[in-house]
Amino acid sequence: SLPVPLSGRGRFLLEHAAPFSAFLTDSFGRQHNYLRISLTEKCNLRCQYCMPEEGVPLTPKSELLTAKEIITLARLFVKEGVEKIRLTGGEPLIRPDVVDIVGQLHKLEGLKTIAVTTNGINLARLLPRLKEAGVNAINISLDTLVPAKFEFIVRRKGFHKVMEGIHKATELGYHPVKVNCVVMRGFNEDELLGFVDFTKDLPLDVRFIEYMPFDGNKWNFKKMVSYKEMLDTIKQRWPDLEKLPCETSSTAKSYKVPHFQGQISFITSMSEHFCGSCNRLRITADGNLKVCLFGNSEVSLRDHLRSGASEEELVQIIGEAVGRKKKQHAGMFVVSEKKQQ
């Protein structure tokens, strides 16, 4: 007979003799089937809430994951049960081999979704090739519908390119095209209704994201507009706003104005965290595995890969990191204080 496992994780795995990988299941029973891979630290914009005007110190190219290393790691994760991979950055579409990376990922058996999060600057030009290579979900960042305000927040020109990218994505049949909008008090909270209106004739999912603390954005709690406040504002204009059903692991609370083609969602990272159903893992551009966006603990998969670790050893290392994942990240006040120290 089997000895009784002492850890909660061991108990969960024994009770749920599921086909899902033990290595990607944490001690709270969360099954991680969604992997975000950062392709680059570089970006062609300088968004005020994201990075300082002068940019950030970049990791030397030799320390970043090569395309081959990205595919090697992706293959491991997919073999263990990852069904969705999202390519992020920096700005992933400035990486010269992005279309090739997508094509390689598309060959991985068991991978159902290849998504890209982009600022949209290069999207219209690259999307036909990306779609052919296998990208089947698109998220585009856009925080304002006012061109002058766009230039102010991103410190660059390019509003028309982003709009062109959004329209190109709808033309190519992406449904919905997700538009990520970080809402900041004193900057764009007065555009909430304009963004909802944007979903009237286009199959968009405009996702209002609560302003979050990150290094370099001089986080100020007063800038945060909570999901409930946003919802109240929108309901005053559209009182018949409908709540839509959502998946357990969804980070978004979704709504729709009746008869509008698209919908809106709220990402409540700060006011109502969704740690309990978190199914996400992240690999940074330099090959570190992060089990929580707000956590500091990272393990370098790049170093193990380059020192010749076998597939079994890598999976074991990944499993140990996932096993250390905490129940939830610190509350929003703690997170913001940490970032300001």
Overall description:
The chain is α/β, with parallel strands linked by helices and 341 residues long. The protein has a single domain, classed as TIM Barrel (Alpha-Beta Barrel). The protein contains 11 helices and 12 strands. It has helices at residues 8-15, 67-79, 98-106, 123-133, 147-154, 159-171, 192-197, 227-237, 301-306, 311-323, 332-340, and strands at residues 34-38, 84-88, 113-118, 137-141, 177-183, 204-210, 242-243, 252-256, 263-267, 280-283, 288-290, 298-300. The chain has a 12-stranded mixed beta sheet. A hairpin with a 6-residue loop joins strand 8 (252-256) and strand 9 (263-267). The chain starts with 7 loop residues before the first helix and ends with a helix. Mean pLDDT is 87; it is low at 331-341.
**Low-confidence regions:** 331-341
What's the β-strand tally?
12
How are helices and strands ordered from N to C? Answer: HEHEHEHEHHEHEHEEEEEEHHH
Tally of contiguous helical segments: 11
Measured by DSSP, the beta-strand proportion falls in: 15-25%
Q: Specify the CATH architecture.
A: Alpha-Beta Barrel
